[in-house]
Write a structure and sequence with these properties.
The chain is an alpha/beta fold. It has eight helices and eight strands. Helix 5 links the parallel strand 5 (100-105) and strand 6.
Length: 187
């Protein structure tokens, strides 16, 4: 179905998913997707934790790695060693608390700060035009290439406007993989 499914991290967006997220997980697994960032910014911590419990049960059943977004408490409570945070919310101790500490970057200065804070996965964006950021021009493939060079051995994933047609462009610019939201929520 998808080219390079092992290079894709799905990103949740319940507002555009036609079914409950825990019911979307088997569809992701069937498409070969192995990782899901549970990114539900509209939820408070208690609501997020309840959702994460349901999604985790489905992820465990179908062999999909669940990555918690924004709520380290939820990750700890559910014994999930994978966390993705906004750069300005990372505390220096998080890199020793989690096996994977990812963050989003939007500049080369952000890459430097992410490295200093111990991030070991970077999402660089937004690379292509996306409905999520209609008022901001995309940063493009040259930016992605620079981030990949600056990150050194830290894996960089392109995010923002990624679709089946441009995955190979992102990989060609040096990205380890891509993060996809819209297409992953509609399969």
């Amino acid at each position: 179905m998808f080219t390079f499914p092992n290079k894709i991290i799905a990103v949740s967006a319940s507002r555009i998913c036609p079914r409950p997220l825990e019911e979307q997980v088997p569809r992701l697994a069937q498409a070969g997707i192995k990782k899901l960032i549970l990114r539900e910014k509209q939820l408070d911590e208690d609501e997020y934790l309840r959702l994460a419990e349901k999604v985790l049960a489905s992820c465990e059943k179908y062999g999909v790695e669940l990555i918690i977004h924004f709520y380290p408490f939820a990750a700890k409570k559910l014994n999930i060693p994978f966390l993705h945070m906004p750069l300005d919310k990372i505390s220096p101790d998080m890199s020793v608390q989690f096996e994977t500490l990812g963050c989003s970057v939007h500049s080369l200065d952000d890459v430097k700060k992410a490295k200093e804070l111990g991030a070991n996965r970077i999402a660089a964006g937004h690379i292509f035009e996306t409905d999520c950021k209609k008022d901001l021009p995309p940063r493009g493939l040259d930016f992605l290439s620079e981030v990949c060079k600056s990150a050194g051995d830290i894996p960089v994933y392109a995010i923002g406007g990624i679709n089946e047609k441009n995955i190979s462009d992102a990989l060609g610019a040096g990205a380890q993989g891509v993060c996809m939201m819209s297409e992953m929520m509609k399969i």
